[in-house]
């Protein structure tokens, strides 16, 4: 007489090839639900993960509802909530939870807390970035607490501290940090160090604090012209 687990392994060959322990699995006909247990290694092809510990392996597709991801490769799927400790995220949708460390290659981040790691590309919609390296991508909204921004497009949000190396800032509030280079289009600058880049006043009336011109300190003023909506 075959056990339920033996039947599942026979029906889903990818389960038979994987290594796991204390698994509580439910068969839903054309996919499985992982209710709890520890995934040691192997390839997860599809299904819903409700809770448990993922130690290592490759996740190809499916829905992650909750649990702890320790290491491995996430190729695609939907992450609802949980704790990501380390590993490589290649693509997919992150809806909530806590990211502790790892490499994000591409995908859509909707909400959650990013503690540390390297973001290579993708779309950040909302959440809190605590520290790490942002290489490229689009930031739509959220709170940036600290870290290094190498390049990308910032649409809106709050920048609390960190180093901005290059990119396009469209709107938002800059509270403190170091701006090395890039293009500032609009927003609120409260404090920080501006080293280089392009800035122009937004259309309309602006209040600008004048400091001595760095290349001619005897003359504190320089005449600037801003041109908008020029059509050739």
General description of the model:
The chain has a 23-stranded mixed β-sheet that branches. An eleven-stranded parallel β-sheet has the order 3-6-9-12-15-18-21-24-27-30-33. It has two helices and 34 strands. The protein has one domain. The chain has helices spanning about 5-10, 15, and strands at about 20-25, 30-40, 45, 50, 55, 60, 65, 70, 75, 80, 85, 90, 95, 100, 105, 110, 115, 120, 125, 130, 135, 140, 145, 150, 155, 160, 165, 170, 175, 180, 185, 190, 195, 200. The mean pLDDT is about 90. Strand 1 and strand 2 (about 30-40) form a beta hairpin. It is elongated. The protein is mostly beta strands and about 230 residues long. The chain starts with a helix and ends in a 33-residue tail after the last strand.
What's the short story on this structure?
With about 230 residues, the chain is mainly beta.
Strand content: 35-45%
Question: Distance between termini?
Answer: 81 Å
Tally of separate domains: 1
The largest pleated sheet is described as: 23 strands, mixed
Overall structural class, as computed from helix and strand content, comes to: mainly beta
Overall strand count? 34
List the uncertain runs: none
Annotation field: number of helices: 2
């Amino acid at each position: 007489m075959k056990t339920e687990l033996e039947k599942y392994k026979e029906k889903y060959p990818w389960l038979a090839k994987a290594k796991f322990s204390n698994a509580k699995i439910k068969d839903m006909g054309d996919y499985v639900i992982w209710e709890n247990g520890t995934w040691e290694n192997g390839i997860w092809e599809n299904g819903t993960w409700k809770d448990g510990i993922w130690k290592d392996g490759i996740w190809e597709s499916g829905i992650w509802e909750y649990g702890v991801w320790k290491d491995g490769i996430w190729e695609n799927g939907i992450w609802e909530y949980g704790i990501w400790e380390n590993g490589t995220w290649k693509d997919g949708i992150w809806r909530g939870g806590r990211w502790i460390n790892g490499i994000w290659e591409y995908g859509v981040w909707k909400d959650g807390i990013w503690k540390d790691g390297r973001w290579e590309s993708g779309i950040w919609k909302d959440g809190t970035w605590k520290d790490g390296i942002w290489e490229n991508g689009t930031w739509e909204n959220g709170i940036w607490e600290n870290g290094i921004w190498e390049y990308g497009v910032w649409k809106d949000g709050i920048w609390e501290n960190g180093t901005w190396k290059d990119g396009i800032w469209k709107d938002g509030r800059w509270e403190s940090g170091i701006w090395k280079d890039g293009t500032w289009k609009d927003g609120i600058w409260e404090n920080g160090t501006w080293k280089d880049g392009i800035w122009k006043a937004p259309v309309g009336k602006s209040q600008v604090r004048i400091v001595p011109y760095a290349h001619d300190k005897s003359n504190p003023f320089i005449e600037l012209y801003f041109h908008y909506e020029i059509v050739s």
